[in-house]
Predict the 3D structure of the following.
Amino acid sequence: MRTDILGVGFDDLTLDEAAEAGAALVEDGGFHYAVTPNPEFLLAAQHDEPFRQALLGADLVLADGVGVTYAAKILGRPLKGRVPGIEFAQRLLAWMAAHGKRLFLLGAKPGVAELAAANLKAAYPGLIVCGTHDGYFQEDGPVVKAIQESAADVVFVCLGAPKQELWMVRNGPAAGARLMVGLGGSLDVFAGVVERAPEGLQKLGLEWLYRLMKEPRRIGRMARLPLVLFQAAGARLTGGRARA
Ligand code: UDP
């Protein structure tokens, strides 16, 4: 049973449980994909049905950030905790390195995925990065072929939302990998192009504030986030009659 937060169902998992579930999907036959919605996703999905369907259809839906866990609390359906996409990725990488699994990195500006690959191989000895591709391509076909030929088990799809979720739904089954994970700007972080917030701020759930300080152009996007909390409060007050 998923926990419904403003129209999107979330898996109620701790970070450890999410990582275990991710590993199980890799071991399972067939294609799977995981998404990491934050409050911006929830707002966008209200006006973008294909995007909402892509989120609902995922095998793993992880609450990326405090905005989602606060909204869950306000709705009276608290989640065990947040599962930041990047931390989920790190757990999965450790497991992949220990089990000889193959990783393909897709997304970000040219050169970034290669830089991320080098850093990840150093950080996770034994990790096999079997291919990379930047996120600014015109046709899906050659990228799908590159993933097929790489025989990847896992693909980190980092094209930003909703592009990456729609891309995984459209191309995942043909690419032959077991698990694709939509991870937004994570390759920039792995490449060292963008830093994560200091750990103290991460623990306080204030990573968004650090990101805002570093990239003030995000203010327009972020100013909309309290809206998710107001919507959750509205849905709670109307006893769930509103879309909750
Ligand atoms: N990106 C991409 N192709 C595109 C648009 C974006 O590869 O057509 C990349 C972009 O370079 C960045 C990531 O997708 O690395 C999205 O970053 P953003 O910080 O906007 O995403 P978030 O983490 O906020 O979802």
Notes: Residues 17-188+197-234 form one domain.
